[in-house]
Amino acid sequence: MHKMVVLYPEPTDPDHFRDYYVTTHLPLVTQMPGLLAWRYSFDVAAAQGQTPYFAVFEAEFADAAAMGAATASPEGRRVSADVTNYATGGAVVIHYPVQGGTD
């Protein structure tokens, strides 16, 4: 399994972010080919101190090739292009193969 995580710093308009993300962006995400599972949260907390992130998103793919194909697809390009419509604080995208443990 391969996971993509998107970390969102605080936006200039948190209410717009939440509304747009749920009503517009996530429906685009669900159209990405090869997407096995996804989840998000607006309740991001740090173990100590203040969190540098407002929201987090996780997506799961069978492997890195499936993730690459999804992000390169027309649907994936639409998802990427849409980020500027709500994430005024930017976005940090990381991905990695998942090893060990249970889900």
From TrEMBL:
It comes from the Bacteria. Residues 10-88 form the EthD domain. Gene3D superfamilies: 3.30.70.100. InterPro entries: Dimeric_a/b-barrel, EthD_dom. It holds the Pfam family EthD. Signal peptide: none annotated. One of its GO terms (molecular function) is oxidoreductase activity. NCBIfam families: EthD family reductase. This is Ethyl tert-butyl ether degradation protein EthD.
